[in-house]
Amino acid sequence: MSPRRASTSPVGRARRNPGVRIPPLFQGFRRRLRSSSIRIRLVAGLAIPILCLYTVAGLSLRYQAAASKDLHQTIDEVLETMMPANRLQLLLARAAMPPNDHLIDRDPRERYRWEALAGNIDSLLRDLRSQPPTRTAATILDSAEALWRQAFQLGNALLALPPDAPDRGPRMRRFDAAIDAAISEINTFYNVLVEDLRRREEAAWARQRHLVAGTLAAIALATLISVYVAVRVLRSVLVPLDALHRGAGRLASGDLEHRIGLEPGDEFGQLAARFDQMAEALQRERRRLADLADRDALTGLYNRRAFDRMLATEIRRAARQRAPAGLLLLDVDHFKAVNDRYGHPVGDEVLRHLARVASTALRPGDVIGRCGGEEFGVILPGADREATLHVAERLHRAVRTTPARLPPDLEIPVTVSIGAAVYPMDAPDPAALYQRADQALYAAKAAGRDRVQMWTAPTERQAERGEERSGEA
User: Whole-structure pTM over 0.70, yes or no?
Assistant: First the structure.
């Protein structure tokens, strides 16, 4: 549509009103803006007055160059103290690494790194103490130095610890806490320097403010108004547009948890609300499908694929935290006889019964899954051999003392054989741990079923029997 037919535009109304005259240059500028994108229109319309204001301000402040010389000198003096303080913060943060790394990797080079860092920290502390800007800064610096001395002693003690020291965890935490406290004090010292710089800067400006007080006040007021209007207008359009653009991109990449979260009230808010509703519906559907893919259809427990994935995840977590983890494999005793006598539907009910009983007998946080047929698996996070055996025996008793009752009056006793193994004492990885638990389950069945068997390394006599069985075969 041409500008002549845009009867609702300001230019059209001006043409109908002979009392309003718009210069031709302005009319051409308006036509160009109307044909451009909303981003260019807003940026150009708001940046031009701000640019003009800053041009005027630059011309006025040019005469202040000589008067600001003492201000720059003040800043340089304070920066000479602030830069060592900033470097001291970085060195303290780096000093937390060598003792911890030495305990983990036992690398002798970490000791030399520690000594070098400690020397640099001591040197910086001496430099800062030689010229503290204020009495408050000197007091804070004394406190930071005392905390560093404490951290230095704790760090030396950590470097002297043997690798199997039982209290190395608490010692590492105390050392880290001391380092953090020293960094916090240096940060406070740094803030005091910043505050001192601000006060001295304000004093320098106060001595020169009477030269251009009126000009600066007018420029400051105009600048604040222009910036406020520009920010409000730009944010009202650009922020919703960017949020919608990012949201669509993240949704397209598969991130269904992202929400735009714009406030309702305009078209952008309504569009964002519809977008969030769509993402939430897709996320619910994805969770439902993922849950169906990880669950056993008969018992509702985790299936073998999900169980193996969660076992590998738990072993990785235990390895990071240097913690144990137990694994139980249980098998329903004489389950084939139940199917042969009562039929497979009854056998399915027995498996559902076992899943319910086992789930109630476990600890909060334990994970149970159906590994196949009548075999189930249980992951015990943080359980050592004693805790693993305790949970296994409790589970065995719960199943043994709770028969499966089916309508109308059928009662089927259920017992299980359980094999147990513990990471890392019995196996170094998930596959080996599963194999050890399976061997223990086989041993429980061979010993007569209806029992719990922890995995133990085979003796020489058992090995000889295995060789004899292989020879007979």
Answer: no
